[in-house]
Amino acid sequence: MERTAKPRVFVTRRLPEPAMAILHEHCAVSLWDNVETPIPRDELLRGVAMVEGLLCLITDRIDSEVVAAAPHLRAVSIMAVGYDNIDRAALAARGITLTNTPDVLTETTADLAWALLLAAARRVVEGQKMIERGEWGPWYPLQMVGQDIYGRVLGVVGAGRIGQAVLRRGRGFAMQLRYHNRRRNPTLEAEIGAEYRTLDDLLSESDVVVVTAPLTAETRGMFGAAQFARMKPTSIFVNVARGPLVREDDLVAALRAGRPWAAGLDVFEREPIGPDHPLLTVPNVVLTPHVGSATVTTRLRMATLAAENLVAVLYGRPTPHIVRH
Ligand code: DGY
Question: Where is the D-isomer specific 2-hydroxyacid dehydrogenase catalytic domain (predicted)?
């Protein structure tokens, strides 16, 4: 049956123009018209009251309260690959479809993992700070020495799309590749040449551990004191997944104790973190503000895809990006 009126949708942030244009063409759009600031809870609850579609970000908690406030809601589209801020059971109970934006950010996020990895290994941030403080003295043999990456062991925990892209880059550095997933992946092993390890073995064998696992009830807090204690005193720990996978207090203590040797982190238990965060009291960390997918091209592709996903679901068209409940 032909639709007579455009479906109503609510968007929780002003998105880049190409995405807004797609939404306006196909939908009656209402919007939290702000680029930088997340929508307050009461505005969100009010905003969803009359709509069939919701386009949201990782900063919005979409739970049973939101679902109850949205009696007509049929589709939720998140502009992200991760959707741990969304209560999928609450959506499933009402038959609401959830879509996300995988693939378009894979290579960009893998690049950031490598940026953190190399910067941590070679003390890039520490070096710049030393220069800024006017503390760069004459060259001496062990001045600012770091760790080699070339030919070492790279272990990825949660080798999905992004983790596999991280592993592929390791081939260019002649690294020995290891991965840990819930289940072994023979295709990954054959195509990338990575060997499966239990988590404990991966941690003790790897020179670099990169976390790319999703945040679930199972993975929350999976890196704590016991896991860091298994790592080599020369190892580097990188997290570009979600902060709550790591017990941050344990990581700070572990870094102080020298195992791991350094860390590169793009995500934190509670974001945004401030200048008083304990991680900033240890010298051997490189921190970025959750920018794994933050390139112009990728963020535009994510926003556009999120808009296309929402339109597709509301118009009953196929989209490959439906998250299975
Ligand atoms: C994601 O897509 O899940 C990122 O964390 C935000 O780009």
Answer: 9-323
